[in-house]
Amino acid sequence: MIRGHNLSAWKALLCLLFTLSLSFITVAQESKIKWDTIESPSLEGNLIGDPATRPFAVYLPPSYETSDKLYPVVYALHPYGADSGTSMISLCIPYNKSPMDSMIKNDQIGEMIIILVDGTNRFCGSWYRSSEVIGDYEGYITKDLIDYVDSNYRTIAHRRSRGITGHSMGGTGSMYLALKYPEVFSVVVASSGIYHHDSDFGKSYIKQAASSNPKDWGEFAPCPNAPGAFAYLAAVCPNPDKPPFFLDKPYEEIDGKIQEVPDVMERWISAGIVDSELEQYLKQPVRLDAIKFVHGRSDGYVPVAQARDLDQAMNDLGIDHVYVEHGGGHEPLPAEGLQFLSDYLSFELPATTTVEWQGKLSITWGKMKRACE
Questions:
Q1: In terms of Cα–Cα distance, which of 340, 328, 334 is closest to 94?
Q2: What pTM did the predictor assign?
Q3: pLDDT tens digit string along 146-182?
Q4: What CA–CA distance (Å, rounded) separates 250 from 237?
Q5: What are the Cα distances from residue 284, in Å, to 73, 249, 296?
Q6: In this structure, are residues 291 and 298 in contact, taking their beta carbons and an 8 Å threshold?
Q7: For residues 113 and 71, is the Cβ–Cβ distance under 8 A?
Q8: Can the peptide bond before residue 224 be classed as cis, meaning omega within 30 degrees of 0?
Q9: Spatial separation of the C-alpha atoms in residues 45 and 168, rounded to whole Å
C-alpha cells in the first residue's frame, strides 16, 4: 500500500509520465514533407536529353508515423515554369504541410498522402503528355511513379482511392490524364486549364511560337520565361527529324507573314481535350467517379471560355461533372478542391481487393494477416 508523501510522489510521477506521453504523441503525430526519387524507364531515351531520374515530394499525414493505416493518394501537378526543386513545391503550396495540416485538424478533409509530381523538362514544362521528343510522361506518372509509391508507402492501391489535381499546366494535365486513364484515377480536380485547342485562344496560344525562332538551345529563353507554346508543341506535335527542338509549328512565318500549316494544325486540334479526348473517354470501359474543374472569370492567362467550352461539351455528352466559376483570376480554389477529393476518394479497401505492401503485409478488407516468407 502506498501512503502519505509516497502517494503524492506517485501521483506526481504519473502526471509527469502522462504529460511526457502526450508530448511524445504530439511530436510523433506531426505530418511531414519528404523528398524521394525514382528511376523512370518511361523517360529514358528522350531526344532532348532530360534525365530519367526524377525527384518528387511526399506529404505524409499526421498519423502516418504512428499507425499502420493505409491512405488514399492524391497526385498534384504543378503549373508551367517550375524547376525540379523547391519551386516545384512553392507552385504547389495548397498541397504543402501547413494548409493540409490545418484542414485535417479542422476535419475538413481526411488524412491523405499527397505526391507532388515533377513535370519539368528542358522546355520548362512537359504538359504531362507523351512524345518521342520529351519522353513518355504519361507512363512515368501512371505506371512508374504510382508503382513506386504504392510499393514504398502505405497507400490504398486502388483507383477508387487515387485522385489527381493540378493548376494551369497542371490543370490541363490532370484533366487529360484522368480522362485517358480512368482505370488508374477515380477523381479529378482541375483549375485554369487549357481544354479546347480549336478555339480562338487555343490557336493564338501556339501562334506565339511562329514569331519565336531561336536557332539553338543557347538562344532559347530560360525558365520561367521560356515560351509555353514550344513546350506544348514538343508534346503534341513532335518531329524527331527537326533538331534542335524536334517540333512542328501550326503557324510558320513565310515571306514575312504568319501562315497556318494545315496538317500540323490538324494534329494540334486533335490533341485537345474538348476536341477529341472526351469522345475517347466515352469509349472507356471505366468511368471516373467524380470530375470537378474551376476557373476564374478574370483569368488573364487562360480565358474562362476554355472552361465554359469544356462544361458545355461535357453537358452535351452527358458526362457528370461539377464546374465552379469564381470571380478571381488565374488562381485555384485549393480548399474546395481538397474537400472534393476527400469527399469522393475511398478511405477503405474494397472488399475484394488484396494489397501487397513491400512484400511483407497482405491485407484484405475485414481480414488482416502477416504474410510468411
A1: 334
A2: 0.85
A3: 999 999 999 999 999 999 999 999 999 999 999 999 9
A4: 9
A5: 23, 31, 30
A6: no
A7: yes
A8: yes
A9: 27
